[in-house]
């Protein structure tokens, strides 16, 4: 009954938003796509996009069973595939399916906690409730992307493996590769394979690490991660790769490590370096210097260090709330001191490997990519809460769960109060105006406009001066400012991602009212009241990828 109650608590807000967003903007029955990343797996399933089609096959099958199959001849035709996958009918199915899988993830997290700490069911209910109330998880569960589905399959696989180890079920171990395949296939999440390290006997772990303590082991992992991050950075010569490598060799407990493992420790840096030479590995660790939007992900260079290390705590803060995050260190400490069966905790090694990847190596750092970390953080927060006396304080528990609920309201309301809805009356009042718009503006279907390029405003701005207004979307101009892709350091404009220095300079001038041919006339901004959202808005812009502020600039001739 507790699992059923938590499932309902999780499902209701996710399903409501999934079926409510984008409807009625342009009259009864009208539909506007809110998130342009939705339906990507569907397009891949129809051979119209390069991506994993695993979830797309599922949503297409459901839509077809409901009488909305893809039209004939759509396979291999990218335009037709996109039109079908972005249609109102399919998006409604994809979002509802994502909402269901997101709610099931909450249940799976509770089940996983009951395997990890069977004598502390309060941890399971607390972790699951935290995830159910997470505005960030709600936001991605009501979106027709693969992120919620990927997280479900990841934790379903881990929960099955943990249950199999705790109960000694060979059947569970035999079946686990199926769920691992789902976890990998949904979004190419290869980290899932690390969970099988939990099957390594305790004696082998002792021989491998030589009995070194947590402090030494942590320093060893961080040194190796920092060295690898330097190798996978276009600016790495400035960071002294050799000293980091030397530090790694100094930290390995050579005298305690069994000699059969000594060669493995010595060869590990060489093997990792050889792996980084593979093109596919470079794509996911370094990225390219150029893209069709300007600079590529590798252009961030040395700024990548701070960005990656800032993004992880920033995302957890806005996802779970400050009170929950304060208990995460206590959860880590409790596990390090022997809370629960250490072998079962090893089933979560994929999340640790993924955390290190996102903190040190990842070139692409959209917040949605961090979603698999969120349930693990909720578990750590719950463990930390109930490892202290605060877990028995009713008033603290009230704050602990009320806070993320208010935070979720503040975050998810961004979608329901989407500033793009305000463009409907604005275009009606400016019917004869000549308007330039940027990406993600999402104007009324009957409105006429021209897609803006910053080149139109260079020199004497002859092309720009042909228009009357320019409407800019934060989701596009934020490439000129600090955000989850650029990090907090944005002084060097050649280090900004998905833009060009001249583009960034234009956006900064235009929004500051310093451009000679543009005047900021009107703006529609998202309003927040929770400190996490206010802080993020101040330093990193809006949390959501496709919902942000709109600025209307009048063209001066």
TrEMBL record:
Main localization category? membrane
Q: How does it sit in the membrane?
A: Multi-pass membrane protein
**InterPro entries this protein is in?**
LipidA_mod_glycosyltrf_83
Which chain regions cross the lipid bilayer? 97-117, 122-140, 146-165, 177-199, 219-251, 263-284, 312-332, 344-364, 370-388, 395-412
Any one GO MF term held by the record is: pentosyltransferase activity
- Record protein name field: Glycosyltransferase RgtA/B/C/D-like domain-containing protein
Instruction: Report any one BP term from Gene Ontology.
Output: lipopolysaccharide biosynthetic process
Organism of provenance? Pseudohalioglobus lutimaris
Q: Which UniProt keywords apply?
A: Cell membrane, Glycosyltransferase, Membrane, Signal, Transferase, Transmembrane, Transmembrane helix
GO cellular component annotations of the record: plasma membrane
